[in-house]
Design brief:
Elements: E1 6-9, E2 15-19, H1 26-39, H2 55-67, E3 71-78, E4 81-90, E5 99-106, H3 115-129, E6 135-141, H4 145-153, E7 157-167, E8 173-182
Parallel strand pairs: 5-6
Antiparallel strand pairs: 1-2, 2-3, 3-4, 4-5, 6-8, 7-8
Helix pairs in contact: 1-2
């Protein structure tokens, strides 16, 4: 799916643009996600893991997501650079089509500017417009209190825990928590 471009004013007065990615964004998207994964240990991949992703693979991913009616990605652009992204994926099949899952990443320099909240508002609106969708799901890694606070602010509640689901770089294991928002 493709997102209709939207402008917003950030808390610091700068303008941001929300839009779908395009092939021309592929190189910057790889740079963005590698940098974001290096800024926090709470994303599911490490920066090193992104080294194996080619520009062609990222371009293919962008095309797939823009043409898939069960997925939507939004980039947040500030000063012509990717500041963050979010994605919603709708489940297919009769038994799961009432569910959607979301993911979000934001560079540290753009934290606390209202981008995460606005991204979630967009994802929630998109899910509400989709026939039959009754709940949105997201997971977070134990210790990520910033993310948990944002999700709770947006109406998500913890529904379960996957013990020792994530192995951190130092070898320790932490829990992954599942959250859900009913629409």
């Amino acid at each position: 799916m493709v997102f209709k471009e939207t402008k917003l004013e950030l808390k610091d007065g700068r303008e941001a643009l929300f839009r779908s990615p395009c092939e021309a964004d592929a190189a910057e998207m790889l740079h963005f996600i590698t940098k974001a994964c290096g800024e926090t240990e709470f994303l599911l991949r490490s920066p090193e893991e992104w080294a194996s992703f080619s520009l062609e693979k990222e371009k293919s991913f962008v095309n797939e997501i823009n043409h898939d009616q069960n997925q939507l990605m939004i980039l947040c652009i500030v000063n012509e650079k990717i500041a963050g992204n979010c994605q919603i994926s709708f489940r297919a099949g009769m038994k799961e089509c009432h569910r959607a899952s979301v993911a979000i990443a934001l560079l540290q320099e753009y934290w606390n500017l209202g981008i995460g909240t606005r991204m979630f508002e967009e994802m929630i609106q998109i899910a509400r417009k989709r026939d039959g969708v009754r709940q949105i799901e997201i997971d977070f890694i134990e210790g990520n209190s910033r993310e948990r606070s944002l999700y709770e602010k947006m109406g998500f509640r913890i529904t379960g825990v996957k013990p020792d689901a994530i192995r951190m770089k130092d070898g320790t294991f932490v829990n992954e928590y599942m959250m859900l928002k009913r629409l």
